[in-house]
Amino acid sequence: xxxxxxxxxxxxxxxxxxxxxxxxxxxxxxxxxxxxxxxxxxxxxxxxxxxxxxxxxxxxxxxxxxxxxxxxxxxxxxxxxxxxxxxxxxxxxxxxxxxxxxxxxxxxxxxxxxxxxxxxxxxxxxxxxxxxxxxxxxxxxxxxxxxxxxxxxxxxxxxxxxxxxxxxxxxxxxxxxxxxxxxxxxxxxxxxxxxxxxxxxxxxxxxxxxxxxxxxxxxxxxxxxxxxxxxxxxxxxxxxxxxxxxxxxxxxxxxxxxxxxxxxxxxxxxxxxxxxxxxxxxxxxxxxxxxxxxxxxxx
Length: 299
Fold this sequence. Notes:
- By secondary structure, the protein is α/β, with parallel strands linked by helices.
- It has two domains: about 10-90, Orthogonal Bundle (Chemotaxis Receptor Methyltransferase Cher, domain 1), CATH 1.10.155; about 105-295, Vaccinia Virus protein VP39 (Rossmann fold).
- About 40% of the residues lie in helices and about 20% in strands.
- It has helices spanning about 25-40, 50-65, 70-75, 80-90, 105-120, 135-150, 165-175, 190-195, 210-215, 245-260; strands at about 125-130, 160-165, 175-180, 195-200, 205-210, 215-220, 235-240, 260-270, 285, 290-295.
- It has a seven-stranded mixed beta sheet with strand order 6-2-1-7-8-10-9. A three-stranded antiparallel beta sheet has the order 3-5-4.
- Helix 5 crosses helix 6 (about 135-150).
- It is globular, with a radius of gyration of 23 Å.
């Protein structure tokens, strides 16, 4: 008597997703995506397959691992905690430039700072926050705008908080040294006044003036985690960051930002972002990706 063995359905999680040096399956991608979501709220879908493969291949090679499955096992283990942070750093997008979306800085200079400068001169505490600051070009653009409008700002209680999830980006921001090409979008007069050229193994580079640095406090911060400060802030920039979150996480983050702003505080977001969820009713949209928190009249 013969027996018939039923064939098991194919396991789609084992489907190969990339051709290359290391085996990379849907199961591997799903594992990495789940860890990134849990750690940072970043939602990776399969359109990011090539990005994940290309950015992590070098690490797998350096660590001498056989494939992505071995890498996933490592970063999911207790001994792989440091590498899991490295993975997050490598999968985080850090595109930025000085005075990106310049209309925000024009609005800051022309419509927001005059009132804040008056309050600072009366002894009030003024705080601005660059959330998701990448390598520091955004908070330095804020500082340049502030100094151009308020040269004596260092005499008053005015500070900029700059935060990012990637410690490597925070280190670059604290150093304040950039390729000359990065500073091309800085207006010539500001570049002449606030930057100096320095030699480095990579050739001539631009270093920001210490007076700019003293206005900014750089801190590592995961927007998906605990925020160890209370505010309130008069101005928050969070641009081209929340687009990497899913709808639920976006809605939660917008609400948290609203709670950090003072009444009539200003909120600047990225060109492809919109405030959604319950927080939408807390803001007035007063310009292109420019919002103001509702509340009592500004002081």
